[in-house]
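Backbone geometry:

***
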Amino acid sequence: MADTRMGQLGHRRVLAIALPIVLSNATVPILGVVDTAVVGRMGQAAPIGAVGVGAIILTALYWVFGFLRMGTTGLTSQAFGRGDTPEVGAMFLRALLIGLAAGVGLIVLQVPLIHGAFMVSPASPEVEALARSYTGIRIWSAPAAIAIYGITGWLIAVERTRAVLVLQVWMNGVNILLDLLFVPGMGFGVAGVAWATFIAEWSALGLGLYLCRTAFRLRWDWARILDRARLIHMARVNTDILIRSLLLQAMFVSFLFLGAGFGDRPLAANQVLLQFLHITAYGLDGFAFAVETLVGQALGARRRSALRRAVVLCAIWSGITAAGTAVAFGVFGGAIIDTMTTAPDIRTEARHYLPYMVLAPLIGVVPWLLDGVFIGATRTGDMRNMMALSFAIYVGALALLVPAFGNHGLWVALLVSFAARGATLGARYMALERAADAPAPQSTGS
């Protein structure tokens, strides 16, 4: 069936995979707005700060396991492409078990992890007390939250992105409704926001298992599921992705820290403009996920022509999206800034750096797309190595540009890092294509 699908690769199929992801991404900021609004109506600063701090701590802990989504998509799509139905089912269960086990591990280690987080980011006693209450409730849904990464990756791999949209809308919709019920309605305060997320995540896990019910109809081969070689390969792929993601996160963290050194106004302006990058990601992620799936399937089927066609089609739509985003930022960027802040000095400051936001989608489209290509091909060693090289180039750009140009130099260095990621991954692309002709199983590039 997968081989037949390779011959039906066209624009409609790309959009069928990508658009539900774009729509599901759009629900994420809505939830953040509601979380903030319901505690903001309490009329105190501490609850807002507590939800913000608590959410950041848990997001950082869960983010470590984001590799599970990407690794599951790449490995599953390749199994799907070569028609290995037992391995497709085995990958689902492996991802599910890893996610549940990781969540249990966080629950067991919650005391030192959360205590350490507050030592790094101290808050006022009132905010910290409320945030500890928030994290103490939400941490118990960690198994569900992390397992959903694996479920999402599996659904993307088998081209069921409408199910991903249903799952995301359900989880965020339940969360929003319970926010409104528990906080303004029943007066539960910060704890109410935490309980809303707890219930939403566990209910989403239940829905996710239902959406993946076809996997449960397969005959479970525990020898295959727990096969040492396959587990080692999966661990290697996921470790490479984790290292790459840590370097990427270090890049953005250093950007924030260096921006803080220029004063409150540039820091606030940078925070506002980083939201433009999030908007860019919401659009481009859909096509990056599509290329993950299609490249993985083409590589699994050993169809080099299908692999190249998948990349070309997704590149066309990514380019259209990036160009449209750049134009929108150029025309409406000022208005977008004004909706994010009412402070006149920050509005003025942010407008000084708005041209970089127009350039960001145009430069970032290549690394975003190639990340998807290399994830789908599980050439994660290449991703890790090229990210390390790009990080070194970024550090060099900072050293040269920031002393001379200040915050402008900081933004240019970030754009240089985008270009470096695109160029370095692009240099490894032809080796990836040649691997589609090789009879041996795809290596990780390590």
